[in-house]
Structure formats: structure tokens, C-alpha cells
Amino acid sequence: MARVQHHDHILIYCTAGGGTLTVEGETTAVSSGDIIYLPHGSTHQYQANSVDPWSLYWLHFDGHLAEAFGEHINLPLHRFAIGLQARVVRVFDGVVALRHSSHNIAEFIQGGHQVQALLSYIALLVQQRQPYAVNCFDTEHIRAMMQEHIHAKLDLDMLANEARLSKFHFSKKFKQATGESPIKFFINMKMQRACYLLDSTARPIKHIAAGLGYQDAYYFSRLFKKTIGVSPEGYRQAKQ
């Protein structure tokens, strides 16, 4: 494949074999476990190895947040080794399944959220594997714990105990790894889930709040507005 320029963003994940990637005249080898990000407008070409050809997932995406997500990934030289990640494969498979299963708007909204989650997760993997990354604890394990408790409550003591660190050192290392405090990260995760539910369901806001561990719907609405910038009601109306 060779493109002088293109109008969307491209994400490629190599899961087996190998090949080469050339961007703006510079060529690099690609092997299993490598992720490639090609921003819109970049001149590039790529091809499979003739002896051990690659197996690829690829995704074209665009939108008013696409460039910001590309910058967030911060991929060195357009290619980076993240290893074979079952979670990345699952999301690619899920997006493909949605694409072929339905033309329902809710399905496409879910697919959009899955792509956002995929890009965010890849950015985290890239950051964790940088030489300067601080990984004295398993950040992904903490994120998985937050996801498991997204319908309930977590406090700093519980998270620090899980990481076997003091609250001070846990908070410091988590922020170095993610750019946010643990509690703010957890709240943002809950609010992202709330956005998905507001987009894809007609559930009353008080039910969405309760499902995310907030029995006080007014407190949930204030927290949602502080995080997202608009009230849950305003967010839902804007999407209609």
C-alpha cells in the first residue's frame, strides 16, 4: 500500500509475521506486536515481508477529536512495540463485528466509544513502555480494578492497598504514569461510562447515577457537569 496523502487517521496492529513501513522517506521494520499510527496527510507506504508476511488489523478513523487522540498516543516514529495484547485484539474484533452486525445508531455510538477506549489504552501502553516510565506497580491492574468497581465505590486506601504502597507514594506514581490522580482518573472513567449510557440508552438519569454508585442523583449531576462541562440533561439533549 502506498499513499501520497490521505484524509483520515490510520491505526495498524501487527499480530504475526512482519513487514516494512516507510513514512516521509524513512523506512523501519515492523514485526508482531507493533502498533502503527499514521496521522492524516502523511506520505507513507507499507508492505508485508515476502518470507514471513504479516497479519494485520487496521482501522481508519476521523472526527473532531481524532487529531487530539493521535497526539495523545504520542507514538515514536509512527511505530512502537506494545506486544501482543489480548485486550487490543478484542476491541478490534468488536469493532469489526459491530460494523457488520447492524446499522442501528446505538451500535455505531458503541463502536465510537470502543475506538476512543482503544486509542486511550494504546496511549497508556506506549507511555508505560517508554524508558522514562515509572512502573513500580502495575498500572493496568489498577485500571482493571477500577473498571471492575465502576458500578460501586473505591477510595484511595483501597487502591493503595491493592498496589501495596502508601497512599502518598501510590498517588505520586499513578499520576506520573497516567497524568491524573487516582480518584480523578476513576471519576473520569465513571463519567465516560455515563456518557455512553446517555448516548445509547433512554434510562432516566437517576438510574444511570445509581448504576454508577451515586445514590444522590443531584450530586452525580454536579460531578458530571464539573467533569464533562455540561449537565447530564444538557449532554443528552445535545446528542439528540
UniProtKB/TrEMBL annotation:
Stretches assigned to the HTH araC/xylS-type domain: 140-238
UniProt keyword annotations, A-Z: Activator, DNA-binding, Transcription, Transcription regulation
SMART domains named among the record's database cross-references: HTH_ARAC
Domain of life: Bacteria
Keyword field contains Magnesium: no
PROSITE patterns, alphabetized: HTH_ARAC_FAMILY_2 (PS01124)
SUPFAM superfamilies in the record: Homeodomain-like (SSF46689), Regulatory protein AraC (SSF51215)
Protein name: HTH-type transcriptional activator RhaR
Species this protein is from: Sinobacterium norvegicum
Gene label: rhaR_3
